[in-house]
Every structure is written in structure tokens, then in C-alpha cells.
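Hey, can you fold this?
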Amino acid sequence: MKYAERITFDAEQCGGRPCIRHYRLRVKDVLDMLASGVGEKEILEDYSFLEPEDIRACLEFAAEPANYGWAIGDGRNLPPAASHRLGLVEFSRLESKS
């Protein structure tokens, strides 16, 4: 499946964040529900306009960045919160000692 058919971007909707088929439901909202343990069936019941393919498109969209390498370095290329959250500060200290 190509998520581009189901994931839409509109500067006038949800601050330009990725949404599902121009609805005001962000990809992040669906991913957060899945991550918290809400099942696909329950999501589809709660959001009657959603289709199973929409949920798979969200997962495909979220998985895409994992297909590329990360240039971690010392974490200076990431915002401080992301560096700490990913443990890059500790990683950079270890890396610099070797």
C-alpha cells in the first residue's frame, strides 16, 4: 500500500500535520491510540469514517524513517529534548572517550 493515497497534508488543517484522508484526525492520534494498547477494531468502531487501510497507512507512514540511517554524532543536530529522550547525551560521552 502507498500511504500517500491516504495520508494528507493541508496547511489549513491541524497545523499542516499529516492527517487521514483530509479528516481532522492526525496520523499521530492513531499511532498514540495503537501505542497505548487500543486495538484496531476499537479504533474503527470509535471513528466510523476510518477504514482498516487507513490504520495500515499510518503505520507505513511512521515506519518510513526507520528505513534510513541516522547520523547520531554527538546529538548536536537534534533538539535538546530529543537528544535526552534518545539517550544521545550519554551516548556522546561514551563515544568521545574511545
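Oh, and this one too while you're at it.
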Amino acid sequence: MKFNRIIILISLSALILSILPFLVNIFMPVTSGRVNPHWDNWPYDFNYYRSVITQGKNGQITVYDKYTSENQQGRLLRISYLALGHFSRIFNLDETTGYHIARIFLGVIFVF
């Protein structure tokens, strides 16, 4: 029983530490001349995921890679991010906020 509590405490600590930079950026003003894009990992990954969320928010049911010049057909790829876009549209959230809310919510579910 004590071991389970330690694991839960470590997991919650990791979750809070991963969310902390996002929360600090929300509540602390950005100084003049600086921009905070709210990236939590590699910029290409985040921008790609955000483009998929945007496609879902626009009502699409298939994904197109916006970062290639190749001809492509829509694919059922990254469905979770596409669904997150539909969620963001329903609750009128921007893509970044929807992404981070999902991170927090799913992180808590994962811990428990």
C-alpha cells in the first residue's frame, strides 16, 4: 500500500512538473517584444499536431500534412488530435488551449 502511494506521488509530481511551464506562461505576462508560442516539445511536432487539431476544428474527418508539397489524399491518421479539434470547436477553444487541456486531463486519468 505504501509503495502505491509513492508511485502515485511520483506520477503526480511528474505531471505537475510537465504542466508547470504552461501554467507559468499563462499567468505571467510576456515582456515587450517577446512571443510565447506555448511549445512543450519540438516545434515541428507541436505545429504539426496543432495543424491536425485545426483541421478537426474546421470539421475535416481526414488529415492532410500541411508541411509537405507532395500530393496526398486525406488519411485517418492522428485521429486523437483530429477528435481534439472537434472538441475545441464545440467548446470554442483555440488549438493550443485545447491541446494543453487534453494533456492535463489525460495525464490525470493516466495517473489514476
